[in-house]
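Project standup — Tuesday

K.O.: blocked on the structure for the chain from last sprint. Re-posting the sequence here as requested.
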Amino acid sequence: MALLAQAFEGVRIAIGALRTNLLRTILTTLGVVVGIFVVVIMGWLLQGLDKAMNDTISLFGNDVIYIDKFDWSGQVRWSEMRNRKDITMKQAEELQSLMTTPQTIAPMARQQGETVKKEGNKVTDIIIIGTTSSYAAMLGDAVTSGRFLSPVEDHYRQNTAVIGYALALSLFPREDPLGKTIKIKGRSFTVVGTLKKRATFIFKDVDNELYMPLRSFLSIYGSSTSLTIGLKAGSEERLADVRSEAMGVMRNVRNIAPDKKSDFGMNEAQQFRDQIATFRLTVWAAGIGLTALSFIVGVIGIVNIMYVAVTERTKEIGVRKALGAPRRSILFQFLVEAATLCLLGAVVALALSSIVMISVTSLFEWASFLPSFVPLHLLATATLVSLFVGVVAGFLPALRASKMDPVTALRFD
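H.V.: unblocked you, prediction finished:
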């Protein structure tokens, strides 16, 4: 209880001293304010970025491998990938007949920048994806109304389509799209299903996708299009088995000699996670550098103001010591004052951070992936960091005050 009373007394004295020298206090805490502000904003951005990244990765599927002409990791030269042979429909069918480990296999082809029309209304820059009914397993519960493509539509090359959330709103703003007719490259397609909103901050175009039977797609865009083959393992634990079998079977299908390297990419969500980890590390390094610089400035300022405070209150220290105040009491008082100074800086920084967060998430639609408040773990981190900085910065001045000779202190003028 005595220690708690000393703490409250120290806070009261500290606030009084800070109010007496308000301008000096503001300038001194500026480094702490900037440091805490950077820590909180950086943590806020990274938390939102993590969510956006995880949402984006979930679109590709955590248990899905995509065999493609191109390697998505960015570790293979473009010139090398461009010269690879296309993945054909025949190869996709042969791979599907030979593999046993995947839960689902779905070949697909993609065309970007297309136009979809409906009774004079048209939407541009649409992504057309040709695939089979098996791809429904990779979409999960994304179909919100109607259904996905059927095996009959696959086989007979029927002109049906499943459209994304944004495309549905653009083409049919005030009516149900199901059963309606749209036109692609002059051909009429019947809408049989719509997808839920799936766009993320990183991958916005996903809501402007349109799915049609693969054979219909190839009849429009040509059979020379290189395919991507999706292999759904069923669980992340089975990925290694599917990856191993797919590598061997695909090399055999494409007649690749044992001494030659593969001329296709095996792409999966882990590649994106690795790139994300590198990006996060870069952001953290930059943020920590800025934070450290701000705190160094803040610590120097707090040490300076605490030495000034000790000098200004030398007689007070002498009186307290003459009346029997122990060294630890004097030491504790000045440590509390330094910590209070830093906590005030943290309060200001958290207030500014909250204003920034609320403003950004309220004014900008693209910021929906960011939290609109200071996360609790960042609040706790800011509080602990400010206390630590205060104790470190105030220790030497407090130690000097506690070691003062009472007689010398009382004679100080």
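K.O.: great, moving the ticket to review. The chain has a mean pLDDT of 85. The longest strand covers residues 104-118.
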